Amino acid sequence: MHSLTYGELIRGNRNFRNLLAGQFISELGNWFNFIAGLGLVRLVSEASPTAAGLFFLARLLPFALMSPIAGTFVDRFSRRTVMIATDLLRSVLALSFLLVTNADNLWIAYVATVFLHVFGAFFDGAKNAAAPNLSGKEGLLAATALLFSTRFLLMAIGSALGGWAAAIFGYKAAFIINSASFLISAFTVWLIPEEAVREGEKRRKGEDGKEIDPVRESFWSELKEGFRYALGNHFALTILIMNVIWATGGGAINIIFERIGGVHFAMAEGWNPDIAVALLWTATGFGLTFGMLLAHRASIYLDRKGRNHGFIGWTLIVHGVLFSAAAYMPKLWMFAVLVFISRAVVGVEYAVQETMFQRSLPDYIRGRISTLDRGAELTVFGLVSYAASGMMFYITPQTLTIISGILSALGGAVWFLREKRSEPTA
Description:
The structure is a single chain. With about 425 residues, the protein is mainly alpha-helical. The chain has one domain: MFS general substrate transporter like domains (Growth Hormone, Chain: A, Up-down Bundle), CATH 1.20.1250.20. The chain has 15 helices and 2 strands. Helix 2 packs antiparallel against helix 5, helix 3 runs parallel beside helix 5 and helix 10 crosses helix 14. The two termini are about 15 Å apart.
């Protein structure tokens, strides 16, 4: 199958351009919120690792738990309306961080974070389900790489700018920017016509020759259908297990960056804590972006050589080993370099893996399966983040970095154990 290049997709598909623009703006604001929110929690809790762990749990667990419900919802209702409504709601919620002034009202930040990511689960479910319809099969690889690479690019830019803004202008400016970004995102989604985000429902004709509306199962029946598909389809279950295993290591990254950058190197080298943490997230974002942008050429080569199978497994293993090696770096910039390389490697892998996964899913169930996979991964990610915060009372962040890399690499072993060399088909 011919795959469109990035330029061909962007130039020739206005609806996809609007979706991409909306994500670009809202993700920029999200990373302003993340760096500022984490810094605010650190400030009012006097750098408590438990407080940081609760903040990460509030970001990840609600998104994870709501994802299967969100996936079923967006398979039944207007994906465009869901994206617009959740953007507007998040715009209001982002401003509630302005009310946090001391430890007594830190709960406001946690509650706001929970609801931001509940609504975020619905937005992401609708966006991920709609993207293959907007891009078409020929544009899916480019669309997947662009959507994820811009998200990770904004992780880099937003983290850097968020850390700089928090250090120079204070946290309030970052929260206001986050609120405005959701409004702009809602407008760009509004520009996309409803019929562009979903395949037309197939209708049958009655005895009189008139079309009969398709009969839908109940919401809970469709939710259960998603679970049955994920557990019964070999490839979907492989992806699910592999991503969950990866998250047992990857979930510690939040605490690792907070303690390595915001505490260890901030004290050892005199870094501003917000800027040090932002630097590590910037390295992560640029690494993932670089890897994603290499994915188009890598995929063409792998398809021609028939090497997708080995590539996915080995890149997962290599990226984990590289991340573990970062623990031995004596300087923050050296730690960041290895983080960048590790994330570049897994960025290429993820784009190839995700494209294979999306191509294997029929439209009617795509929202449910993609959000179930993401939800399971983030459930583990969130629980591990909180567990890692407790481990900081007993081990060093460097030791946690080694453990994180080893566990992440096990995802590659799962791939080799379960998957044959043939690419799945829908």
